[in-house]
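pasting for ref. prot 1 ->
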Amino acid sequence: RWRSFLEGAVFTHNRRDLIYHFYDGIFLFPAGMNAAVRAVVRMGIYVGAKVYLIHEGYQGMVDGGENIKEATWEGVSSMLQVGGTVIGSARCKDFRSHEGRLKAAHNLVRHGITNLCVIGGDGSLTGANLFREEWSGLLAELVEQGLIEADAVQKYSALHIVGMVGSIDNDFCGTDMTIGTDSALHRIIEVVDAIMTTAQSHQRTFVLEVMGRHCGYLALVSALACGADWVLIPEMPPEDGWEEKMCQKLSTRSRGTRLNIIIVAEGAIDRHGKPITSSFVKDLVVKNLGFDTRVTILGHVQRGGTPSAFDRILASRMGVEAVLALLETTANTPACVVSLCGNQSVRVPLMECVQTVKVQKAMDQKRFEEAVKLRGRSFENNLKTYKLLAHRKPESELPTSNFNVAVLNVGAPAAGMNAAVRSAVRVGISEGHKMFAVNDGFEGFYKGQIKEIKWGDVGGWTGQGGSLLGTKRTLPAKHVEKIAEQMRKHNINALLVIGGFEALECLLQLYEARATFEEFCIPMCMLPATISNNVPGTDLSIGADTALNAIVETCDRIKQSASGTKRRVFIIETMGGYCGYLATVGGLAAGADAAYIYEEPFDIRDLQANVEHLTEKMKTSIQRGLVLRNENSSDNYTTDFIYQLYSEEGKGVFDCRKNVLGHMQQGGAPSPFDRNFGTKISAKAMQWLSQKLVETYRRGQVFANTEDSCCLLGMRARALVFQPVVQLKDDTDFVHRIPKEQWWLKLRPLMKILAKYKTSYDVSDSGQVEHVIHSRPKDSDASVAM
């Protein structure tokens, strides 16, 4: 099917086998761009195309010559972990002129290039679209000047453009997440975490200035991720008198808080358009409160560094999607941008994205509410969630629900659990509930380890790894009577369970226990939290992103250890039980040559083919190989067996090393994604529980015994969805503790293609053209875009 598609789309069209890849020189490149370069080059070569790289951006396209070079497979090796762009960039005034674009067109025709993959921001993409619109006129001029033959006009009649958005500000309409944003958040959170330790030690207030001259996304999301006390962004200036309100909030230090964090976007303004600088905020705090206050301006640190796992995967997926989009274009196809909506690839008309960016105009006219809405539903909900969690209402303004809600962690610890607990507690209190924390899961529940938890008790929890409540794998089935007794004792009216596969089993057991114990006839909700990402009903789980980053960072270091040595292959064992998510997606992000998982059975012939493939690659300029193996991928083909096989068969060509990553995948501070994902879905779960409590409250008590009152909240494609746990039983392989269908298996052919394997690629899941003006699903903000 794929081969027939290629034959129809590539080889029968005139010069459609030439793909051109370039950068806009006036654009500053965030981390993750090189992963996009690698994906476009290798996917292009895979489909039989010639791929050209143009160095030094638009200037290279205007100047031509050595700036335009044909790319090779080996030439883009060892690029995934490198930030910025390896092919350079430069400012180019020439391209803004008609004469400059005429030179650029001449250089493209000389190389037979009629397909452009543009990576950049709205300025880069707008310029490319103008170039496309002028294309036929430029060719006519070149013929008149005698620079090209007349038949070239027909031969190269159409210029096809596909864009990918790279910007740390995440300010481009039509995509949930731009390449580089997640890496920038990593840099910010690393600094914030380091600052918080010194701030606590010295009881200081820190004012952090982050990038965002016209967009406050980085400031807002980093504030949400670290639990900052105050945030200032250009889209939503504070109300008049904010100075007094901020100082009043910060003054709560006298009641036990040892630090304050204020995050300021570089473009922050007040309601009258006057800039709010970090130094102004510092002077304000010192003058009014007398606190020891320091300013840290992060600057270009946010643009640099190693790309995060998310950015590598996003860029790789978008690079492949860009090639597919170019293959399918016709002369009448408008330029499009490939992007991610939720967890799905989509294509959006380029000029719709650019023309919809009206935020600055709304801000200039002081229509700030509209400016926030124009940023998109995700930005708007981030702002609402931050306000809900950071600013506590006075007791007199809180609703009085008289409901008691318990929250507990179940199963293995996962980074982001504490952020979810903090969010649940504070949203619950804001809803008027009394919140109870259960220590050590259901084991602590039946032992009575239950206590009320207050707003201030969860301060600083967002950045903590592990589970501060404690967590155990104990299931409730054997202790339902004692658990019911504790629920009566504390009058628990609703239950929020945060955990992995064990949490799903727990809710199923409690649902079945409703027939015997009326105490379990209450609303119950589960949040998936496990590094294995093996919970049915959700595409992603809290903790999986942190584990992926740990795997990718370790693989980078391991591969670097072989620099300058002889050819070497590394065998890496990952966790995940029977679920191969970490091995597969980690392999895609780290540039692995193979990943062995339980879901895709393999035998000795497959192992032999992989060894031969690596042997062939090692005979070229490739110096290092990487093979990942899921811990339970096979009973017989163990990590030791694969290591010994590769060592024996690779003699004389490469040597071999092995490494078992173990529990380091579970530890460490949560990634920005896991902090925000846990925070947002927990807030949504608490709001759902509040709604269910009101719906099921009758005659002085809560009674909920329907299927839809015991749900799992998961991310499905583009939306957060509440799914009754009993309906998930048919979708679950309980023996191996994995879902029967897993979306990420579609990424495995992509990983193999980028590793130079000859394999089929299903194009049925490729992105479809969508329009920006179309409304997205109501909960699309819950996507991977944080």
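and prot 2 ->
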Amino acid sequence: MILLAVLFLCFISSYSASVKGHTTGLSLNNDRLYKLTYSTEVFLDRGKGNLQDSVGYRISSNVDVALLWRSPDGDDNQLIQITMKDVNLENVNQQRGEKSIFKGKKSSQIIRKENLEAMQRPVLLHLIHGKIKEFYSYQNEPAAIENLKRGLASLFQMQLSSGTTNEVDISGDCKVTYQAHQDKVTKIKALDSCKIERAGFTTPHQVLGVTSKATSVTTYKIEDSFVVAVLSEEIRALRLNFLQSIAGKIVSRQKLELKTTEASVRLKPGKQVAAIIKAVDSKYTAIPIVGQVFQSKCKGCPSLSEHWQSIRKHLQPDNLSKAEAVRSFLAFIKHLRTAKKEEILQIPKAENKEVLPQLVDAVTSAQTPDSLDAILDFLDFKSTESVILQERFLYACAFASHPDEELLRALISKFKGSFGSNDIRESVMIIIGALVRKLCQNQGCKLKGVIEAKKLILGGLEKAEKKEDIVMYLLALKNARLPEGIPLLLKYTETGEGPISHLAATTLQRYDVPFITDEVKKTMNRIYHQNRKIHEKTVRTTAAAIILKNNPSYMEVKNILLSIGELPKEMNKYMLSIVQDILRFETPASKMVRQVLKEMVAHNYDRFSKSGSSSAYTGYVERTSHSASTYSLDILYSGSGILRRSNLNIFQYIEKTPLHVIQVVIEAQGLEALIAATPDEGEENLDSYAGLSALLFDVQLRPVTFFNGYSDLMSKMLSASSDPMSVVKGLLLLIDHSQELQLQSGLKANMDVQGGLAIDITGAMEFSLWYRESKTRVKNRVSVLITGGITVDSSFVKAGLEIGAETEAGLEFISTVQFSQYPFLVCLQMDKEDVPYRQFETKYERLSTGRGYISRKRKESLIGGCEFPLHQENSDMCKVVFAPQPESSSSGWF
């Protein structure tokens, strides 16, 4: 019996020496050379999946794989050698034909001799239980070439059993899931989980942001614990949320197929893998399997100064209404992001006053440490001569797509210094509030700079004594929307003077629903119903708007409805219009309002037949299945027929996420004495004032004053000037997304989306005692350009796709009131001009030697202008008419 047991053990030992034991990953047979074919190909298109419309290229080769060493302690510890041979390049689009950039070119000419030699030098892969322990290559090889070899080597990392784990390969440290079925294994890599250092940033707001998707699936066909075939597909897709025609997709595929096996060198004996590697070639060194960053050299690219000289004519003030100005602006920002401080600083020092404001816009929007240092060195905040440049710098900071703590700290430092203009000091504080909001939205609320800025805003508001300082800190809080500031806002809303009380109320109005607590609503109810003191109409109507917007209770709605009829004449009409607009536009409060209106005491002819000229109206600019643009206009008049407040708003929604695109508020007060009229209750002692306040892309700007005080009013009237006053003017970078991607094939990809606009908002208020007429005019002109770009680079061949859209548009609102008799005559107009809309697409393939293929398409259409309804009595939606033009296209060599 003992003899039989000994013989059995000897048999098992002999068998295991000739046949490999059980492994958890791929395993190579001893003394065999595996000969495979390998290809990696990449396609770029707009997500339509049509091969004829795609650009890209394919890199193919033969591959030899051999087992050099297996640990005597276990079959799952292996060292394999991988060698690429006979490298070839070709188009993925075979219909390119004579236009193929590879036609007539040898691979050695395209890749270059030294790169080809590096690509064909073998690499070593140390596998333990099927997972990569180390990756060995030669030092100082080009990073792009090493990445291609990393992409191939990563395919040999796998396991034969189902399960979820983390693996490190060329894509980084990623979560992967294996699904094993007999002779087939599927590996799904969660690319969003991959930890890898790559440059990139994005606009965090959903409306201005992008949606990206990434998938990776690799299928292994296994025979005898080794691959017969591998097919891997990685897809990267990008789409701009509010304009879905700006979209692109990368499809990257790898294919590995076993052709044959043949005899190879015998395994190298030894217990330590380090000794084996040294014996193979002492020049081998362990390097990371994770893909490394590389930059392709730009041949013949202009310097920053040369680039500026080529575009400066497009940035002249007279050209800012054209899309070409925005195109030049965006292109220059990209160049600025690669420039050093000294190089940047040379340009504004040598420029004239006409284009300096646009240059300041671009340098500030670049948002790099060098560009920030350069612009801060150039601007002198103690000077009164460069106020326009200082203001343009601050506006560019306010609309920064991805601000950092250093920018905030720079503004805090400036605020603590001295200023030549008090307006600039106010603007600095207001913009600090905007930056606090953006950093908090991007999980930066606990940064030291943000904490300091919060203390500066809240502490300043609490201690402020001058009216100007209180207004400044309230405007900063209106941008920052700090929950800690709500108690202060309630105090100023309920006990402050008229204009301050109104500003505090409108600041509260900007807070999200969760922050409007029962305590806040109790205070708003006291203000609206004047339980403790008399308030201005503007404050009361704002308090009512806060209540109705934030989940009003049955009794809150009922009390507001019951107040209609007891209010001043024009306020009656205004509140009635607000309620009717809620019902017509189906806002969240409409259900509660309908419930209350079932009571006859609230819903009767006497209450709903109040006359007046004040109004409120909300409508759609555009509406699709996933997005909507809305506009609203509410106008409140005094009892004497003089404009008290007009409020124009435009919102953009993506699903349920809103972006407050623009708000223009014109306010006037204390003008009744001019026409010998009696002021309304609570407004007897107001100073004569008219001004304009603008909010742009969720950022409150410093208000503009038309006149302040009776003497200023009379001087403006006697001068008979109706010239519009600029509210905001400049070039803005609104959409800014950049991703550098490591494809698992070893290729480098970049996805970028930029959106900018040139904007000019002006406002004017005219007042004529002779004709007893007042007129307000707000004009908004914009040029918009949005571009998206995708590139895939191997260092010796590059493919790219660029898509874009551009337009120039104008929107004008005019309100005219004739108060020679009562009821006074009111004319409201909001007109949109004809809008040219252009779309373009460029696809290209380019060799590092300079040879290339390019295809261009362009499509134009004209969107007809229209007049928007501003009353319930005229509620037909503005009809937009498209007049498409023929599509143009071209392709060829360059």
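The two ends are 85 Å apart (CA to CA).
Confidence is low (pLDDT under 50) at residues 1-22, 879-883.
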